[in-house]
Each structure stands twice: as structure tokens, then as C-alpha cells.
Amino acid sequence: MPDLKVLIVDDEPSLLESIRIGLDLKGYAVSMASSGEEAVRRCQEAPFDVVLLDMKMPRMGGLDVLKRVKEASPRLVVIMLTAHGSIEDAVEAVRLGAYDFLLKPSSPNAIDLRIQKAVEHRDLSVENLLLRSQLREKYRFDEIVGNSPAMQEVYALMERVCGTESTVLITGETGTGKELVARALHYNGPRSDKRFYALHCAAIPEELLESELFGHEKGAFTGAFSQKIGVFEAAREGTLFLDEVGEMSQAAQVRLLRVLQEREFFRVGSTTPIKADVRLITATNRHLRREVQEGQFRQDLYYRLNVFEIHVPSLRERRDDIPLLSNHFLRKYRHLLMRETARISDEAMRILERHSWPGNIRELENALQRALSLCQNGEITPKDLPSSVRETDLSASETDDLITFPGPLREARQAFEKRFIEHLLKQTRGNISMASRKAGIAWQNFHQKIKKYRIDAKKFASG
């Protein structure tokens, strides 16, 4: 690697010269120091990429030099040189930050190869730190788009839980951005420097899900030709995100419950336990509480997963955010599609605000990407929008509260109150506690009104 600055530190002049000549021929910029004190001074005066450091020297030994130079420059690559392979010294040197050892004398090719590997390792570490920094920046809370009251509530919950190790259950319809919330929790949490691993349970065939979660041993079943590491093992020390956890079979639910209880798991076909060291975040678009009541989802697992719940609202519940989201996607795609000056016409924006968005933010993003590709003269107009967006308006159930009710005031008030409660139950998919909070009244009072108007909250659970 040309232009790398290497400092050789050894109290044997002949060895110094021999290594210098070999590295000079390889194209390195080489400096030399014949004592520990001189090495520390040279590292203070000028930066080096690599230090080849003798372990045994008079006065200031190699370990003392290593400690001093690594304190001053933590990313400096130090390779120890020793004529006596001591395990104790090796362990201590690695603890202090040495990359590797070389027995002396070593050939120029061996030294060159070790330097290349060490620098590649350093560069990869720096690149990983940069990428993690960029990910933390990308998944900051304020990078999630939305200023509506419903999203402010989501942000408040995220702030409360992100700094903890708590298991989180994220609920919400498909396309609302549940994985984005999960990633933000990880990259703003205590495990942000470790891996975030996502598994979409609905995309894995039932017979393979346990293997994906926990791994398997070679020969554990037909087709298991080699050992496989599961996501619980791959995400070690990081965060594991299980999307659509409600799709798990009863057998997989039992295995997952055991992991949460015992904090260990077994690969399929193995009897050796493996420690489960992950933060678990799960998500679902199902009403798990109702599925527990119907026996479709284990109650004990539900309570293990639902230590802290964050409900991500549908786009219908946060219409105020539609202009903000639309302009966000416009900025995201107009450079890629070479529509740098494109804008959304007022008429097109009114249509976007009126559409019911059953596919939520994902549908909005796809609609705007398509419209941006088709628009002319730098403006998205109604004709550029998908027909499914142009030809629909607010559903009747969402405009019922705007209808003028006939009859006396008392009857009109009761009719409105019933429809208002039904509307909230539809928004929360039958979650009475959440609906009562949205209504701003106590749960007991809200429940009494449900009984009064003979409303069946369960029928809204799949809405």
C-alpha cells in the first residue's frame, strides 16, 4: 500500500535497517525509532498509519509505548514484534489495543501482508463507524415525517422507551411505517452500535419459520445440508425486529415464548442452549388482543411482547400530515426522476387529502412516484394521479359526522354520539382504551356509552 506512513521501533539497529529496506522496496514511507521514548515523541510530532513495535526494550518497554500511543491516537494500527512468544504479553497487548503479533525476524513479504490486513481492518472499522453514524442520522426521530397530534403521541412514546431495553410491540395497519419506528428505536437506543435485524414472519413458510428464527444443525431435517444460524443468533447484542408476529403458528409461538422466558434458545436439531442477547421489537397489523380472546394467539406470549405498545396511526387518522408527506416524497424522487422543479398543483393536493388511503403511507409514496414520472411542465395535476386515487372520495363512514341529523336536539345529539363512538372504534380497530383516550373521556364512561348504544366493539377489530 503506497504512501502509508510506517514507524519501526526496535533497539536493534541491524533489525531496524533490515525492516526499513524491505518496506522501502514495497513503497512505504518509513521512519525509525531506536527506543520507546523516541517512538512516543515521533508519534506526537507526526501522524503514522502503522507502528511496528518491539515488545522488549530497555527503560520504556513495548507495552508502555503501546499504551501511550493508543491513548493519543486510538485508531493507530500497532503490530507488536517479539522474539519470544508469550501468551500473557499477547493478551495484555491486545487488551491495550494492538492489532497483531509478528515473530522476528520476519520476511518483508510477511510484514507487508500483515500491514495490509491491519490497515484494511482499520479502514473497515472506520467505514462501519461512519455508516452507523449515517444510520443514526437517518433514523433520528425528527426524520420521521409528521406533525399531527396523532404522530406527536407516537414521538412521545418513542422518547420514553428508546433508551431502555424494554420489549416493544408496534401496532398499526399495513403501510403505516412500523418498521421505520422500530429502526428509530434501535438507532436511538443503547444497542445502536450493534446490528438491527428484521424478519418478516408473514414472508416465511410456516415449516421454515422456526429454522429462520433459531437456526438448525446439519441433518436436522430433510434439506438441511449444512448448519444455519437463525436471526436470534445473527442479531446477537443488537436488535431483532419481528414484523407481522401475529402470523406465527402456535408451535412457533411456544418456541418464542420460551426464548423470552429463559433468555436462551436451541437450534433445530440441537440440545446445546445458546444465550439470547437481543432487544426484541415486534409489529403486527392484527388485533392481537382479540386473537388472544379467540384462542388464535397465546395470552402469555402476548403479555411478554406487549411490555410497551406503540400504535402507529393510519393515514386517515393523520390527514393533516398528507401535504407534509407528499412534499417529502416529492423531494425524495424528483432528483432520481429528473424532475428537479416539479410541484403538486392545488387541485391534485386536494384529491390527495380526500383519498381514504387504505394502503397508507406506502400507497401515497407509490402514487406520488408514479405521478412524478408522468407529470408534464413541472407540475403534478389530477390526471397524473392513479385512477384509484382520483375516483375515490371520503367513505360514507368518515363523513357521517358531517351529516345534519333530523329530529329534536336530544335525538340528534345521541345519533351523533353513537356515530362518533363507532368512528373512534373503527379508527382504533375496536380498542376501547385507545378510543376512550381519543374521545377524551374515562374508560368507564366510554364503556357505558358503548353499552347504552348497544355497539359491538368486536366487529371493528378487523377494520
What would your notes on this structure say?
Residues 5-119 form the Response regulatory domain. InterPro entries: AAA+_ATPase, AAA_lid_NorR, CheY-like_superfamily, Homeodomain-like_sf, HTH_Fis, P-loop_NTPase, Sig_transdc_resp-reg_receiver, Sigma_54_int. Residues 144-373 form the Sigma-54 factor interaction domain. Keywords: ATP-binding, Nucleotide-binding, Phosphoprotein, Transcription, Transcription regulation. It comes from Handelsmanbacteria sp. (strain RIFCSPLOWO2_12_FULL_64_10). There is one protein chain. This protein is α/β, with parallel strands linked by helices. The chain folds into four domains: 5-132, 3-Layer(aba) Sandwich (Rossmann fold), CATH 3.40.50.2300; 140-311, Rossmann fold (3-Layer(aba) Sandwich); 315-394, Helicase, Ruva Protein, domain 3 (Orthogonal Bundle), CATH 1.10.8; 397-460, Arc Repressor Mutant, subunit A, CATH 1.10.10. The chain is 47% helix and 12% strand. The protein has 20 helices and 14 strands. The protein has helices spanning 13-25, 36-45, 62-72, 87-96, 108-138, 149-161, 178-187, 206-214, 231-234, 250-262, 288-293, 299-305, 322-334, 346-354, 360-374, 387-390, 396-399, 409-427, 432-439, 443-452; strands at residues 5-9, 29-33, 50-54, 77-82, 100-103, 168-171, 196-200, 239-243, 264-265, 274-275, 279-284, 308-311, 343-344, 379-380. The protein has a five-stranded parallel β-sheet, with helices on both faces. Strands 7-8-11-6-12 form a five-stranded parallel β-sheet. Helix 18 (409-427) packs across helix 19. The radius of gyration is 31 Å and the shape is elongated.
